[in-house]
Amino acid sequence: MKKIFFYILATGCLAGFSSCKKFLDVTASNQIKSEDLLSNESGFKDALMGVYIGMGQYNNYGAMQSYIATDILAQQYKPMVNLSIYFQLQAYNYQHQAARKYTDMFWDLYKTIAGINNALTQIDKQQTVFNPINFKVIKGELLALRAFLHFDLLRLYGHENYQGRPDLASFPAIPYITTYGKGVTPQKTYAETFALLLKDIQEATVLLHEDPIYPNTSRPANYYTSVNVDGFYNNRNSRMNYYAVKALEARVYTWMGGTANLQKAAQAAREVIDNGTAKLINSNNSGSTDRSFAAEHIFHLEVYSLALWAGALKSGSAADYNALFVDETAFNTIYELNDPQVGAVDKRQIVQFVQDGNGRTPVKLAAAPGQTSNKFLPVMRVSEMYYIEAEYELVNNREKAIQLLNEVRRSRGILKDIPESATADQVKLELTKEYQKDFSAEGQLFFYYKRNGFDTFRGLPSTIKGDDKLYMLPYPQNELELGNRVQ
Predict the structure, then answer these.
(1) Is the pLDDT of residue 7 over 90?
(2) The predicted structure's pLDDT at residue 19
(3) Do the Cβ atoms of 157 and 171 come closer than 8 Å?
(4) Is 172 helix (H, G, I), strand (E, B) or coil?
(5) Is the pLDDT of residue 466 over 70?
(6) Which of 49, 58, 221, 388 would suit a FRET pair with 112, their CA atoms being 20 to 30 Å apart?
(7) Residue 380: strand pairing partners
C-alpha cells in the first residue's frame, strides 16, 4: 500500500507544487514516509492534485474509462474485425487475454483510492496546520472522490439492473475501502456499500458548503483572498466541487432505483440545474469551436495528453483495424438525419463529428480548427441532470418529463419537440436516444444500459443477450484467488 501511495505522490508532483518538489529533492524515494509529506497543508494539496492526475491517466478516465473501453462496450463504434486489439472486448469475451488487458486495468482505480485513504487517515490529525477553509474543502474533495471512484468500480464490476433486483441488496458488492494499510478489506453487501457511498457523499456535501462555488451571501468579498494566492480555488469545475458531489448523489440514487430514491436523485439534480455554474449551451455560452460544450461541464479532468491519446478516434483507412469511429448508417440512425427538424440541425452531429474516411469520427475531445489543443475531458455534464430528473418525472408527471427533454433538445438546436401526447414508452425511447446522442466519447452510455437492464441495445449482435455475463466485468484473477472475492 505504501508503494501505491508513492505512485500517487509521484504523479501528483507533476502538478508542480513547490513543497512536493522540495521534499523529493532532499529525500530518497525509498525513504519517504507519507506521514512526513502529510505534515503540512501543502503536502495535502500535493496529494489531492495527485489524485486528479492519476484519474486522468490513459488507463483510467484519460482514455480507457471514457471514450475507449466503456464506449466500445456500449457498441458506440463500428464492429471490429478480429485483427483489432479491441475485438475480444467488443465481443464481451472477457476471459480472453486480449480482453482481460482492458477489464483488469480498471481495478487500478484502487491505487488512487489508496492515496485518498492515506490522506484521509492523516488529515484529522493534522487539522491544526490548515486554514479552516482549506481543511473543509480538501477533506470534502477527498471524501467525494473516494465515493466517486468506488461508485464507478461498482458500475463496472457490479451486477446489472440493481433497481429491478431486490435480492441483490444482500449479495456481496465490490470492496469499499475506507482504511489505509496492507490488510484485505472484506466485501460488504450492496445495501451496506450504498450506505458507505452515501455517507461519504453526505459528509462531503456538508464540508463543501465552504466551496467558493457554493452560494453563500454572508461571506465577505475577500473571504477567499488569502487562501487563493496560489490559485488553488481557480477553475472549480476541474475539481470535485460541491455541485459535482450533488451530481454524484443524483447518479447513485438513480442507480439504486425505486420511487423514493429516484425522487432524491431528482432533487439533487434540480439543485445542480438551478444553482450550479454549469448551464445548457446557448448562443451566448457556446460556439462552433466549443466541441465538448464546456459550459455544461459540472466536472471535467484536465488531461494534457488528451489530444495525443484521442488519436484513436479516427476513421481513415480501412486497413487501420484499431480506429474508433461510427459507421455512416449507424450515425444516420442515431442522430435521425432523415428528419430535417431533428438530426440535420442537431449541434451534436454538426460540431462533434467529422465525416471522413469510412464514417464519422467523434471530435468532441479534439481542438476545433484554429484552436489550441483541448485538455478538458468531461466527466459530468448538466444535461445528465435533466435526464435524471426526467426519468423520475416520467412516472409522476409525464408532461414535465417531456418538458425537461425538450429543453435539452432545443439547446442542441432541435426544432421539433417531443409532443405532449407522447406515451410513457415513447418518452422512454426519446430519453434513450438522448443518452446515445449526448454521451459520445464519454463512456456513460454503457452505464445507462446496465442500470436499466437493457437485454439488447443498438449495435448489440442478436446472438448476445444483455445480462450479468455481458455487463459485469470480471474481477482480476488474483483478487478471486488471493482476496477470496465473490462476484
Answers:
(1) no
(2) 39
(3) no
(4) strand
(5) yes
(6) 388
(7) 299
Half-sphere exposure of 58 (CA within 13 A, CB side): 8
Binning the chain into helix, strand and coil, the percentages to the nearest 5 are: 55, 5, 40
Query: How far apart are the C-alpha atoms of 265 and 258, rounded to whole Å?
Result: 10
Average pLDDT, integer, range 126-154: 98
Grid cell 482504511 is found at: 179
Q: How would you class 417 by CB atoms within 10 Å of its CB: exposed for 0-12, middle for 13-18, buried for 19 or more?
A: middle
Res. 173: pLDDT tops 70: yes
CA–CA gap between residue 294 and residue 296 (Å, rounded): 5
Distances (CA, A) of 129 to 48, 262, 465: 16, 41, 55
The upper half-sphere exposure of residue 60, i.e. CA atoms within 13 Å in the direction of its Cβ, equals: 22
List the grid coordinates of 185: 478489506
Would you state the cell numbers that stand for residue 21, as one nine-digit string? 518538489
pLDDT in tens, 208-226: 999 999 999 999 999 999 9
Tell me the sheet residues that pair with 359. 327, 356
Domains and CATH numbers, the chain: 2-210+472-482 (1.25.40.890), 246-443 (1.25.40.390)
With beta carbons less than 8 A apart as the criterion, state whether 109 and 70 touch.
no
Q: Please give the Cα distance from 261 to 281 (Å, whole number).
A: 29
- 34 near 2, Cβ under 8 Å? yes
**Which residue(s) pair with 362 in the sheet?**
353
CA atoms within 13 A on the CB side of 131: 14
Bridge-based pairing state of the strands 353-356 and 359-362: antiparallel
How wide is the angle at C-alpha 463 spanned by C-alphas 460 and 465, nearest 5°?
Answer: 65
Q: Name residue 304's amino acid.
A: Y
Coil, strand or helix: which one is 299? strand
SS3 of residue 302 by DSSP = strand
pLDDT at 130: 96
Distance CA 339, CA 337 (A): 5
Cell digits for 286?
457556446
Q: Distance between CA 38 and CA 46 in Å, rounded? A: 9
Q: Convert the pLDDT of each residue in 51-104 to its tens digit.
A: 999 999 999 999 999 999 999 999 999 999 999 999 999 999 999 999 999 999
**Angstrom distance (rounded) from CA 141 to CA 482:** 32
Contact yes or no for 286/268 (Cβ under 8 A):
no
**Length of the chain counted residue by residue:** 487
